[in-house]
Design a protein that fits this description.
With 448 residues, the chain is of the alpha/beta class. The protein has 18 helices and 11 strands. A 6-stranded parallel β-sheet has the order 3-2-1-4-5-6, sandwiched between helices. A 3-stranded antiparallel β-sheet has the order 7-8-9. It has a two-stranded antiparallel sheet with strand order 10-11. Helix 1 (23-33) crosses helix 9 (196-219). The chain is globular.
């Protein structure tokens, strides 16, 4: 329960969310979790790809074929699919949604009036989108002089790549991450679709807003912040850039091995355990094991039973283990494949060795550690779709309510709040804006 009189850190801060997909949506959910009032501006005539769903109105048959990250409750899209897609619900807790068509002058006037009551505006569209709408830092400052404006395009606002349209897959390929994060000898095209650059960028966008708010509190001045997601993502593999710049070495994919193997972090990998069914049904079991120094290597040997191969003197040194990782991986796999993952996990942890089961997504919510930490919370979706578990805020603030205060927001759910309370428009003007298409709770029928 929330402590009486203890506000969340960003209570009283209002942010306009013009973002989309993952990087932008993740940044604003972090800020919303910290107490900011995030107003997501949406347009019934414009579909933001991969923000609320893959498509606005998929058929039931189509919905059943979607991957888990784009699925619907019961694999049924429902009456308003954009409010239930798993792609959306994990990113839109604690937010508000209002609709307006920013492509029209009156829509821009509405935004201007809201900006005058806001602290920050965040966008991560392709370069040129804001320009076409007439939204610039200068225009925003005309509405509120100390406004904070964050623009987080893929490759920055200037330069030869600035006009390139990009999603996480393209950005990580250009930056070289797809080459570095695969398995040794495999083509990058075989990698799974994990776009970590989105989450890294989202975190940095939120951090930039926090710093800008701190700066404004101390100076009274707002800020214009440009965050190129590609430059931000480069921090994930700085060691590869530095290795090439300083040593002329071109790093390659290491699979699950550590970049610090030569310093003693070896063996490091994911190893098979006793299966509990067919791999096609998720019955295979795996465990991650990392040895960080000679002492841990000695502990691992003891757990294994000090087999003859592990007593080879060359493996007693960091350099020796780094040079013989293929042998180590093969021998460890022989041993782990004869053990049950949970039993082995506890045995290794008890001996001071970093180890954990590799959990498929469907096993994560029931994991005791996940449950003990409250990483998921039950919320009820709109339209009586039902109650489901959603990722909880990443922060734990014991003196405040850092839980999910509002379930994933429905499209246009807060139109009444924004137009009637914030803007104080008349009933006549409200009805007119509905008739003109600015105010809506469903996407237009022209959106497939």
């Amino acid at each position: 329960m929330r402590a009486v009189g203890i506000p969340l850190p960003l209570e009283g801060v209002r942010i306009i969310d013009l973002t989309g997909v993952w990087a932008g949506s993740f940044s604003t959910v972090i800020l919303a979790d910290l107490g900011a009032e995030v107003l997501k501006a949406e347009n019934q005539y414009v579909w933001q790809p991969l923000t609320r769903a893959g498509r606005a109105r998929p058929s039931s048959e189509e919905a059943k074929s979607y991957i888990p990250s784009m699925s619907y409750p019961g694999d049924e899209p429902g009456d308003r699919p954009w409010n239930y897609c798993s792609l959306f619900v994990g990113m839109f807790r604690n937010k508000r949604s209002f609709t307006v068509d920013l492509r029209r002058p009156e829509g821009l006037d509405v935004l201007a009036r809201i900006v005058s009551q806001c602290d920050a505006v965040i966008e991560n569209s392709a370069v040129g989108t804001m320009e076409k709408l007439g939204i610039s830092y200068q225009w925003l400052r005309e509405q509120r002089d100390d406004i904070i404006f964050v623009r987080a395009s893929g490759y920055g606002l200037t330069g030869e790549y600035s006009d390139a349209r990009t999603l996480g897959a393209h950005l990580e390929a250009v930056m070289g991450h797809q080459v570095l994060r695969g398995y040794e000898g495999n083509e990058p095209s075989t990698n799974s679709a994990i776009f970590s650059a989105d989450y890294v960028s989202g975190t940095q966008i939120a951090f930039a807003v926090l710093l800008a708010l701190w700066h404004r509190n101390n100076t009274g001045k707002g800020q214009f912040i440009e965050l190129a997601q590609s430059e931000n993502a480069a921090g994930m593999f700085a060691q590869a850039y530095l290795d090439y710049a300083l040593n002329g070495e071109v790093q390659e994919a290491l699979g699950n091995r550590s970049i610090y193997a030569i310093d003693g972090v070896a063996p490091c990998g994911v190893y098979p355990c006793l299966p509990k069914g067919d791999t096609s049904e998720g019955g295979d079991r795996w465990i991650a094991i990392t040895v960080s120094n000679n002492e841990e290597w000695a502990s691992l040997r003891a757990v294994i039973g000090d087999p003859e191969w592990a007593l080879d003197p060359i493996l007693a040194t960091a350099a020796g283990r780094a040079a013989n990782q293929e042998i180590l991986d093969a021998r460890l796999a022989e041993w782990t494949s004869q053990n049950e993952e949970e039993e082995l996990f506890h045995k290794l942890q008890k001996s001071g060795i970093a180890a954990a089961p590799v959990l498929p997504s469907w096993r994560v919510p029931s994991n005791p550690h996940v449950q003990a930490r409250g990483l998921y919370e039950i919320c009820e979706l709109v339209d009586d779709v039902g109650e489901y578990s959603y990722p909880s805020p990443v922060y734990r603030l014991p003196a405040s309510d850092s839980s999910i205060r509002r379930p994933p927001v429905a499209f246009g759910q807060d139109n009444e709040y924004v137009y009637r309370e914030l803007l104080e428009i008349s009933d006549e003007d409200y009805d007119r804006l509905v008739a003109e298409g600015h105010i809506a709770t469903e996407f237009d029928k022209s959106i497939p």
